[in-house]
Fold these 4 entries.
Entry 1:
Amino acid sequence: MNINDTIQSLYKDYGQLKGVTIECQKELVAIGIKNQAATAEVFLQGAQITRYQRIGEIPTLFLSQACEYQQGSALRGGIPICWPWFGDLAKNPEAVKQQLINEDQAAITTEFPAHGFVRQRDWTVESIRTPSDDLTIVELSYHVKDEPLWPFDTVLTCRISVGAALSVSLHIANNSSQPVVFSAALHSYFAVSHIDNVRVSGLDQCKYYDVLDVNEKSEWQLKTQQGDITFSEEVDRVYQSSNAPVTINEKNRTRTITSLGSDSTVVWNPWLNKSQTLSQFKEDDYQRMVCVETANAVNDVIRLKAGEAHKLEVTISV
């Protein structure tokens, strides 16, 4: 279905819903949401929410002004869905890699994009509902079948609830006849006044893998968090056994992140040098964002037997 047919079909099914609009931004189709509690924007590509803002308040999520809105290119900001591996496939646990790499393959090649492939694919809108004047729910799905990068029949469903709080859940069902192992993340970008003002609390004494500190075997170093996280350089950490709520604190603002189906939390800010290498990202964007990601990563990979399912969910309250 081409972009015009997609827009017409969505208008036919949902165009009469109060506060729901169907929008086109260059090559991508988005659903606009406005209710009595908040406004939001959800793209079909990647089932990615890019904007959430409570009425009368400043945006909760960060989206770079350098985004290109091109088919097949994930947007830099909002909450991209990372699956079935997190980050570089080469850095994922052996159980994830062994399913996908042939024995005679010498190395993992660029055909395996960072953070998996579903954030670059168009999802299907299953429903849009407005159960009350202050709540809008969008549900999208993606059926992974006959996919060269993931040879297992899998159905992903993303449910986005926009109200006084924002909730995003990813339900992964293994419909294949064999077990699967994967990593995943709801890669949340948060807008901040300035990164110098940010303190992330809730991870004190948690063990974390420092992605920026590797040993002679190229292994991430395991460390322990002491107090709140502050930022004065690039930070890229995967916290383990971190299922308590996490709070982003600024002088006049807090946001609380509550996760389900997750035992790992990723905290990331690229700082200046890394920002200059990132696509769809201005070199000073690092000053206006911080990522606190609900994840299944490193030791927290998910193993599903045939017919089993897993749900990863984040709720963001202000």
Note: The first helix runs from residue 3 to 14.
Entry 2:
Amino acid sequence: MRSAMTPETIPLGIGELEQRSVGIPRGCLTEICGPVSSGRTTLLLSLIREVTQKGECCALVDTSSAFDPVSALDNGIHLGRLLCVRCSAPHPKLNPVEKALRAADWIISGGGFGLVVLDLADIEPYLAQNIPLATWYRFQRAVESTSSAFVVMEKQPFAKSCASLVITLQTLTCNWAATLDRHHNPKLLTGISFAASVSRSRIDVSRRKSPNSPTEFCVTTSWAG
């Protein structure tokens, strides 16, 4: 039974989550979900950084061309070990989601990547809802015999029972600092606090303490303080 497995996991690179033993399992499909500005990009860049800095290659299937290589480089990602496939350009027969699904299928089947990410976070949810369950099942079957971790970024989970792990994100607070001239200048954003929770897991979590309770983490700006 796969529910009792304890696969090797990839750390997320965020101390608060690593203290709770939350990692991305290899050979499994994981969903990372949350609304806009919920910490999805922060988690994604941190995860890719962890993999590329250890010498493995990553593949990112970017449905909406939202990936920013400059931000990735600033976050310590080794761009020479990252394959980015952009799917937003017009196609006579396929929409961006259909192109992204095909690209992810080919990449997983080809092998050689420690991490494969399918970014559906910026598409309308109804497009993801139209993805057949058979497609998610095919992804699950394709990745389970590999050492790759397959991560899907979304606004809400759609893979259902095919996902071994679902991490849900939400924004908690935004921290603002007053500028010198408060009457004429806007406040500066100095940090955002997020909450991450494991909303579904088919992995043995016996080593974790209260795995389903939210874990808070904060991202600060370069000018904070």
Note: Confidence is low (pLDDT under 50) at residues 205-209.
Entry 3:
Amino acid sequence: MRTAQWNDAVSVIDRVTLVLGAFRAEDTRLGVSELARRANLPKSTVSRLVAELVEHRYLERDGTGVRPGLRLFELGELAAQPKQLRTLALATMADLHDATAQTVALGILQGDEVLVIGVIRGRNAPRLPFRVGGRLPARSTALGRALLAFSEADAAGRVAGTDDPTRRGDLEAELARVRASGLAYDPDDAGRGIRCVASAILTSAREPIAAIAVCGRAESFDTDQVAPALRTAALGLGRSLPPRAVLWPL
């Protein structure tokens, strides 16, 4: 994208943000003139943006004005779901952190990536390649492999890819081992001096809601000591959390 095009795109995002941000909690609807005044934008610009936002359901018509639309509500619900899950899992994450003295992370699968939704840092923890809100490649991380092992076959196949049959076969064999043991490992541990082990949080139907991981310095990380506590934490969360349909309604 050329620089001018990029600047135009950013400018549009800024203007849309100003228009949507003009709504207050007490507003039932706003007219274009009031939106333009609050956003400090030309009325013609706001009128054009409002028409497009209505078309895409971010705003909806209400008499002579507009109000926030269903699409904004849907996006808000999506944002609230990881927060709800993180809140429900926080006590277990804290117990696991206390038991292992290591960093504990919580993640969910989104496409071919893991979205990290919770982290409790361990004492003297090494610098880890993830943060809350950050994304990790599913195929090459402990959190991702724990989730892929119990996901639909097409999800694992999509992440593995078809361009390299050997590579895909290796990943599928690893996922089978994860299903058998309940534990997944980060294949890049040695190169970063970090070791991570993860376990999927499963519903009674063995559907993966999320995955929980324990990470620490490779030279002092005792997998045999961490694994039982991790399995217990994942199993307990799977039993205590509401069904997936409650956390992620259809």
Note: The domain at 74-247 is CATH 3.30.450.40 (Beta-Lactamase).
Entry 4:
Amino acid sequence: MQEAKIEAHAAAAKIQNGQIDVLELKSRDRIAYQHALAVLRETGQTVDSVAEQYAEAFKLLKGTGSVVEAARFFRKHHSTALPKRSGAEIYEEFLAARKVDNASLRYLQDIQSRLGRFSKHFAGDISHITTRELEEWIATLGCGPVARNSTRALVITLFNFAKQRGYLPKNQPSEADATAVAKEPPAQIGIFTPEQMTALLEKAGPQIVSYLAIGGFAGLRHAELMRLDWSEIKLKEGHIEVTAQKAKTAQRRIVPIQGNLAKWLRPHALPAGKVFIGHGSRFLSKVTRVSKECGFDWPQNALRHSFASYRLAKCKSAAEVALEMGNSPRIVFQHYREIVTAGEAEKWWKVVPTKAG
């Protein structure tokens, strides 16, 4: 009895000092509380904090599922077992993979230029890069909206590659997908008139004549022209072969040789060898100088734009023109429809050497 009294006084002193929690619960509530404590013991969470989190999650779900189902979904799409890879490591893997795929030189250079800067800026784990950080980085590049969108597209491709390799969750959009698209100004399509094209061809020397003719009457890109070999110009078969290794899109295509183009090429054609010799930028400077001598400016990408405009006006098929240009029908239809009339197109495809009549 004496020991019990001593223990009772000690308990009373602790209660008075706030050292003992006094909880009055009914039998059923006490059993539930004790069970909750036992369940939560391994988690380290308290009953009140768990109750608050559950209530908040319950409100967010709005009756569409249970908290456990939500947790399972989160677990599935946010795996903690993903291997860690930095932006630089992903960039190196992506570049190596595209080389193995025989991507075009132009595409590889674009990867090295745009994503090379990305890899230097984002040294940490790619899974930690946020949409806001990507947008802020793109904004610091100091380029126009078209270039920003091109960089954004490559970054999205890089993040998709990371998902394929298992470095990011595969079943959800990446942070790159959510980046804003820059508003691009309406495209200004500058083309040559049939009279201007005639003046250019008559003023130009042998090599430049071939450049102008193939660019204006077959629509090859500048880079594709500079890689072109005479063995790929099949005058007898009536087409130019743009190999996958030399195409911007890394896809082989066959471009028909129109009747007037054949007449411009025959006097200069060789069995094989590079069609255009010299550095691309210097060669382009020589070509644009001819237009100045003729008394008019050289609009950007004018030969390819001219081909697309006059070819579409002639054949009336955006899909056919897109196939010949290595482009999409949507772009062809959007940019080149109704730029020239059928009468102007007829004149364009009759531009031939004077001796050819």
Note: The longest strand covers residues 239-242.
